[in-house]
């Protein structure tokens, strides 16, 4: 029972972190290419109108996750 609950929380946490990742938004929504699009365009992905005062803390929290996702996707970005 505990493992099911732990797996559920783990999956929910991963989905929560991935849904706000600027790396994925740069690739899918904004269709930006090149190396490290999530890190390069992090300020565009967190607009001041949408995020308000939470913009800078959200960008700081998202930066290491976007850098990690961009690093994993770097071989695919180099092929394009």
Describe the structure using short key phrases:
80 residues, 6 helices, mainly alpha, 0% strand, flat
Description:
The protein has 80 residues and is mainly α. Helices cover 78% and strands 0% of the residues. The protein contains six helices and no strands. The chain has helices spanning 2-19, 22-28, 37-40, 42-45, 48-51, 55-79. It is flat, with a radius of gyration of 14 Å. The termini are far apart. 15% of the residues are buried. The model has no long low-confidence stretch (mean pLDDT 75).
Main beta sheet: none
User: Low-confidence runs (pLDDT<50, min 5 residues)?
Assistant: none
Q: What is the total tally of β strands?
A: 0
**Radius of gyration computed on alpha carbons:** 14 Å
- Which structural class do you get from the secondary structure elements? mainly alpha
Could you spell the SSE succession in H and E letters?
A: HHHHHH
Instruction: Please tell me what the overall shape is.
Output: flat
Question: Helix count, per DSSP?
Answer: 6
Task: Determine the strand fraction and express it as a percent band.
Answer: under 5%
Which bin fits the share of residues in helices?
Answer: over 70%
Mean pLDDT, nearest integer?
75
Give the termini distance in whole angstroms. Answer: 45 Å
């Amino acid at each position: 029972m505990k493992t099911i609950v732990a797996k559920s929380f783990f999956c929910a946490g991963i989905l929560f972190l991935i849904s706000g990742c600027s790396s994925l938004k740069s690739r899918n929504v904004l269709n930006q290419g090149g190396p490290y699009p999530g890190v390069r365009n992090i300020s565009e992905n967190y607009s001041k109108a949408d995020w308000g005062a939470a913009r800078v803390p959200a960008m700081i929290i998202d930066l290491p996750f976007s850098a990690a996702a961009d690093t994993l996707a770097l071989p695919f970005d180099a092929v394009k």
